[in-house]
Write a structure and sequence with these properties.
six-stranded mixed β-sheet; alpha+beta; 60s Ribosomal Protein L30, Chain: A
């Protein structure tokens, strides 16, 4: 009999680390009823898709946003277990001509699928939008909504 890893174990096996956050100006993840709603989390990578940032680098930046989101969720919920991913909003700093926002935000969605299951609690609704600019010049910003299921 094989032992399947839970979402927290899966995340840790993928190299994600979790650390306590000091409250700041905004709440990075707030619980309302059975939902966890996150603030937008920006990538460490700065720049504009379609100009100085490649789609591949944008994909990695979206994954970076997901890692930050999961750390904020962990701070609020105490674990990644017992959660279902409901909705992801991905914002991509792009030129007017760039049309692969969805391929960039796949960096976030793919990580959530890996951790929570593509055919299960990780199968989420999503929007991927292009923006003229994002705070601090970030390449990507992502926010998410989770449901507490146990």
């Amino acid at each position: 009999m094989t032992h399947e890893m839970n979402p927290q174990q899966t995340a840790e096996s993928l190299g994600l680390t979790f650390s306590k956050q000091t409250p700041g100006y905004l709440n990075l993840c707030i619980r309302s009823g059975q939902q966890l709603l996150t603030s937008g989390h920006v990538s460490d990578l700065k720049g504009k898709l379609g100009a100085d940032v490649t789609t591949e680098a944008g994909y990695a930046a979206a994954r970076n946003c997901a890692e930050k989101i999961l750390n904020s969720v962990w701070n609020t919920h105490g674990t990644l277990n017992g959660l279902r991913v409901l909705k992801v909003l991905g914002c991509v700093n792009t030129t007017l001509e760039f049309t692969d926002q969805h391929l960039v935000i796949n960096g976030c969605s793919d990580l959530l699928h890996q951790i929570f299951g593509k055919d299960g609690d990780g199968f989420h609704a999503r929007s991927a939008l292009g923006f003229a600019q994002l705070p601090t010049g970030a390449a990507v910003e992502v926010e998410a909504i989770f449901e507490v299921i146990s």
